[in-house]
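Treating backbone geometry as a discrete language has practical consequences that deserve illustration. In the encoding step, the backbone of a single protein was reduced to a row of integers, each denoting a local shape. The amino acid sequence and the backbone structure tokens for this protein are reproduced below.
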Amino acid sequence: NDVVVTSDADNAGTLTPGPATAKKAPVFTSITPATAPAAGGSRHILVGTGFTPGVAVTIGGHACVVERMDEQTLVVTPPAHAAGALNIVITNTNAEDVTEVGGFTYV
């Protein structure tokens, strides 16, 4: 349905809705290397699709430094963490996210 807007000066305009834009979740494909020393600080290439400007990445619930290269490539630097396998969560600014369970291991 159209929306009609009228001001006090009898100026009127009609807004016609356009097509709906669906929120798209990012897609995880791989991270290389998939391991890091417990001290953190190493750089990793994360590949997938749908990475928007401002995308955030956490590993084990801890924020990584993220450098977005393009819609398909991120360079991430995870912080220090105890050894073990952890989830990777990629979250776009539209709050859509993807989780790779156990996708990263600190050694």
Remarks:
- The two ends are 57 Å apart (CA to CA).
- The chain has no helices and eleven strands.
- The chain has a mean pLDDT of 88.
- The longest strand covers residues 97-106.
